[in-house]
Amino acid sequence: MKKEKKENSGKLKIIPLGGLEQIGMNITAFEYEDSIIVVDCGLSFPEDDMYGIDLVIPDITYLKDNIDKVKGFFITHGHEDHIGAIPYVLREINVPIYSTKLTNGIIEHKLREHNMLTKVKRKVVKYGQHINLGCFRVEFIKTNHSIQDAAALAIYSPAGIIVHTGDFKVDYTPVFGDAIDLQRFGEIGRKGVLALMCDSTNAERPGFTMSEKTVGKTFDEIFADNKNHRIIIATFASNVDRVQQIINTAYKNGRKVVVEGRSMVNIIGIASELGYISIPDNTLIDIEELKRYPDEQTVIITTGSQGEAMAALSRMASGVHKKVTIKPNDTIVLSSNPIPGNEKAVSRIINELSMKGANVIFQDVHVSGHACQEEIKLIYSLVKPKYAIPVHGEYRHLIAQAKVAEELGIPKENIFLLSSGDVLELNDEAAAVTGRVHTGAIMVDGLGVGDVGNIVLRDRQHLAEDGIIIVVLTLEGGSGQVLAGPDIVSRGFVYVRGAEGLMDDAKHLLDDTMQHCMDKGITDWGKIKTEIKDSLGDFVWKETKRRPMIMPIIMEV
Amino acid sequence: MKKEKKENSGKLKIIPLGGLEQIGMNITAFEYEDSIIVVDCGLSFPEDDMYGIDLVIPDITYLKDNIDKVKGFFITHGHEDHIGAIPYVLREINVPIYSTKLTNGIIEHKLREHNMLTKVKRKVVKYGQHINLGCFRVEFIKTNHSIQDAAALAIYSPAGIIVHTGDFKVDYTPVFGDAIDLQRFGEIGRKGVLALMCDSTNAERPGFTMSEKTVGKTFDEIFADNKNHRIIIATFASNVDRVQQIINTAYKNGRKVVVEGRSMVNIIGIASELGYISIPDNTLIDIEELKRYPDEQTVIITTGSQGEAMAALSRMASGVHKKVTIKPNDTIVLSSNPIPGNEKAVSRIINELSMKGANVIFQDVHVSGHACQEEIKLIYSLVKPKYAIPVHGEYRHLIAQAKVAEELGIPKENIFLLSSGDVLELNDEAAAVTGRVHTGAIMVDGLGVGDVGNIVLRDRQHLAEDGIIIVVLTLEGGSGQVLAGPDIVSRGFVYVRGAEGLMDDAKHLLDDTMQHCMDKGITDWGKIKTEIKDSLGDFVWKETKRRPMIMPIIMEV
């Protein structure tokens, strides 16, 4: 009854709680009356100025405030920027998680690591299956991506159908399973789609992303060219198809394969158990068995293609890997492109490996998992949405997709470049951003979730730039006379050359400052500290052109 | 006499003091008996983990130890990685500097900023001119690069001729002046060249770097497409030809030009004064005059194409530039590619400008200033050196050039991949690395040169990651009784949530620790500090999984 009444006037709210204006931390709420469903629950990695932070998760205050409405999470695929926040968020909002089989396997592994496996309900969904939750119905549609079992979602709401692509590419010849279900996109499009939320990652790139299979051909060539060498290939841990292709080529060439790196071993284990990778008998060997085979009969598949400092390839490159020592005859393949921000780390690895005499191959051994402009046009042309909502990207990527959408004839006013926190209300008659909800990035540092705030970060930045000078002094309780100090200790502040003289001068200066306080009858500790900070700060700036943090500590006996 | 004796047996030493295994800090000594000449004197920019460091200069201990031999510096061109250390190095080794006119103009400007203009002798050299210094003769040869007046050097030594390309590309149609003097490379090659030291920056790239002129055509198209918009173009301050082409296109389109950003204003000023740029009358206007012209009749050329936080474009993007406010109709061109490491900063700028509604063009509006593989092959084929010494690059780039050299028939044993500090001794009969000299990177932080050492950097890194906890206590001189404290203060360490309880617990723990010291009769301050560090460190790790720096300070009254 209620539903009927709202049929034409009700509006759907789309509320991204993260993932816009950045790549990472994808999480979007869909709200209609008393139902909320959430798509994805990802983390992001800390920015360069987030000193000491391990990872960043979305602030889900809005969901907690509406906890009675929240029906479940739908996860499009198993990458960290789509599942990484699950152990943190599901601790606070315990609703079921719906995902495809491999995605669910990866989520289960993650929950197990956090001792939460029994606490969170999970449902495995097949492509084509529809899930009814609240007033929503959600259908999973097969797509292709750099991880298997990726899904687009058709979200049927009383206000209309939303198609969310998830992360996708169009691969007509995938390594495993089927190509993206373009027919279904077309069928749903024919029904009439209210809005398309489409992956923007590669929207700046013209053309079409190549099939994953093309990388297999490249591996065949590399193996043929390097018959007398050990081959070590680094790639993304979660790209099971890539690993499958390396194993296929290794098998054809009679080589044994070692998988190295914790995250890769984990994912290959899950994929293997669930039937997403097929490994010929006697092909995979343990790393301990490596020495029993001649180099030219082995392949090592490893993590660390992004130059991550703790990953296996980094440890090999810097000569601290316990099991693998790089030799001058090794052929090392980086089957990846550097993610923006990782360029220098990747370059460091290439340099280190080259210095050990290895032949490092890093050009044209990778294809992206995201759709380029022609694929984006294809999806728009099948879905033919009324509204376009580019997602999954920094603003530059969103606007690049917006331009593509405009070219395809979608009116500019029907294209929405949302920010995280925007509330987009829409139905067939109108769409507009009508409000904002609280969102944010919660920093995780060690065991602490959200306890590192901006003040702590700012202090860390200050300490990192210029170090700290600590001034301690002991005052007599009654008289306020200086009993000991002021003493000066510094850390992270220059002291190699001439600094001892500098510190002596500083100490004399502080003696004068204290004398000045005494003469003026200044006894308030706050005021004394300010005097110390000001006089020492000016002195240090004049002498060194630096501004270390100055921290006076007063004790009383 | 001496010379005659050595004619056939004497060996030239080539000693790179920087610039190898990195891009930056180029400086190479050439030594023959009692003569040393030095090519270039550059700085490098700090790595990510060099917190608080402004710039890095080479350690020239070897030159100081051999100061009587050092005859002069030859500078190939005016980029910071070739001239930036001059004000620091010439303070210690005051010998003449030889360079072409524009390079000298830029060096003079730098010396003036450091109040050293009258203290350093400079000689302007023309292409084709030969300079005799000690037992060396040095000829300057015209090349092309992303700054005008770049030179290769032919270094005539008693042991043979060395050709050093400097940074170069082959531009058959340069914007200003002549193309690279390929004939002269051929002539010198015909005489017989002992070694070629060739730019490796682009040695990984196949093909040929496009002419600077092609960017001019791109500007013509961009101006034609954006007739109704203000155009803002960011590029490298020192690329005078690029600026010239923007001015040419602006003039053709009847637009006024503003140059913005201190370093660009400086270089354009120098170039203009020395006749390296020709600006039509009434084209250049002051930034204050901008408001007198309609947007579509203006162009702003600005610094900040690398996303540098303090540069003009960054300030425009973040809305804090005093004179230029970005408007939704602006067309903004990044005429540059991000230098590795700057990708995220550049992306941030693109995002910020796009969010202000500007149309940002950043693809294919730039050409490199460095030779790709086909140009490297051309130079090798003209010079036909006996030995190949790839220079100017990280190891990956050096080895890429080594592969090119090998393809061209240079025997592997005649190709030297040097490290900074290697002493390569060579003559027509043999070449080998025979030793090493001390080299290093000296960090400049504020006014301090070399006073920030590894300990300070490591402390800064520790402080940046986890912050600091300071424990202060006052002891009675005779008894060693605790009179005040232990008190705890922290900076950069978590304290937003639950941390007060944590600090209370820590204080109790430290009371216990001090009691324990007292009971055990521990009075040695060093031991007390160790007890404090250990017990507090364990406690904090257990509670938070973090390891802040712990710094006990004891006072005595």
From TrEMBL, chains A, B:
Q: Name one GO cellular component term.
A: cytoplasm
The protein's Enzyme Commission number: 3.1.-.-
One of the record's GO molecular function terms: zinc ion binding
Gene Ontology BP, a term: rRNA processing
Residues annotated for Zn(2+) 1 binding in this entry = H77, D81, H82, H145, D167, H392
Q: How is the cofactor bound?
A: Binds 1 Ca(2+) cation per subunit. Seen in 1 crystal structure, it is not clear if it is physiologically important.
Broad enzyme group: hydrolase
Spell out the catalytic residues.
Answer: D199 (proton donor), H370 (proton acceptor)
Which HAMAP family does the annotation name?
Answer: RNase_J_bact (MF_01491)
Can you state the subunit structure given in the record?
Homodimer, may be a subunit of the RNA degradosome.
What does this chain do?
An RNase that has 5'-3' exonuclease and possibly endonuclease activity. Involved in maturation of rRNA and in some organisms also mRNA maturation and/or decay.
Give the protein name, as stated in the record. Answer: Ribonuclease J
Q: Which organism is it from?
A: Roseburia hominis (strain DSM 16839 / JCM 17582 / NCIMB 14029 / A2-183)
* Designated gene of the protein: rnj
